[in-house]
Amino acid sequence: MAFLGLLLSLSLPIVALLFYGYSAYASVAFFSKPQRVDASFTPPVTILKPLCGLDHGLYENLATFCRQDYPVYQLIFGVRDQSDPAIDMVQQIIRDFPTVDIKLVVDDYIIGSNLKVSNLANLEPFAKYHLILSSDSDIRVGPDYLKRMVQPMASPRTGVVTCLYRSRVRGRVAALEALSISTEFHACVLAARKLGWMKFAMGSSILMRRSVLQEIGGFQAIANHLADDFMLGNLAARAGYRVVLSDYIVEHTLETSSLWDLVTHQTRWNRCTRFSNP
């Protein structure tokens, strides 16, 4: 029994070392082969931005999507409540970027328990283009973001493109959570990609063909899922399409202000993992 206990106690750190060793290998393999950018491949894109309230730095987050070095794209911002303060922010964005095709949609129609997905579903009918990109409100990007995100769509086998994110932290607790994201979550994503298990997407950015979205049942298909981003990629993969991890890395703001917030975030994310991909 003592020997079995010793063997078990040794196996756990050995498994952890093997996992992180493979994750490091997967990371090097991913970043050592930068994605080729064909400057002539610029299909038009519609960007869906569901909003709720005022995130820190929201104006600058949204403004970065208006400064894209890209010929033709559309931005649709959506809120569910007529009194949402994000409406004034979007109206300011519209005034500040008159040459960008921007639309604001205010609609409280609900299709399921996930209110963010209901918001997206209310925006989708206004999309002009075949490529639809959804992105969370706390995301900030550079002017080459769209040009690089669309590159994998040159292959008709690609149904979804998603990307990793780096954290802009506010406070020590947020820094601790950012460390967890970088060393645990990103390690899992890169290892999954290298193993051929890239069958999920991340809310930081999800670029889809509209035909693929319709084939998997539209946003209605994920209206009652907690991990809606995971499911968009997973359903597309089940339908036979490739889910590609772009080498573009967006930024997001992490404002975890207390240990209780940290525990709440981690609990929610682990619930997502448990129910989506245990």
List the helices and strands and how they pair.
Blueprint: H1 2-31, E1 45-50, H2 58-66, E2 73-79, H3 86-96, E3 101-106, H4 115-123, E4 131-134, E5 139-140, H5 145-149, E6 158-162, E7 165-169, H6 172-194, E8 206-209, H7 210-215, H8 228-238, E9 242-245, E10 250-254, H9 259-276
Helix pairs in contact: 1-6
Strand order of the largest sheet: 3-2-1-4-8-6-9
What is the alpha-carbon Rg in Å?
A: 20 Å
Low-confidence stretches: none
Number of helical segments with 4 or more residues? 9
In words, what does this structure look like?
The protein has a 7-stranded mixed beta sheet, with helices on both faces. It is of the alpha/beta class. Helix content is 44%, strand content 17%. The chain has 9 helices and 10 strands. Helix 1 crosses helix 6. The chain starts with a helix and ends with a helix.
List keywords for this structure.
278 residues; alpha/beta; 7-stranded mixed β-sheet; 3-stranded mixed β-sheet; globular
Write a brief structural summary.
With 278 residues, this protein is α/β, with parallel strands linked by helices. Helices cover 44% and strands 17% of the residues.
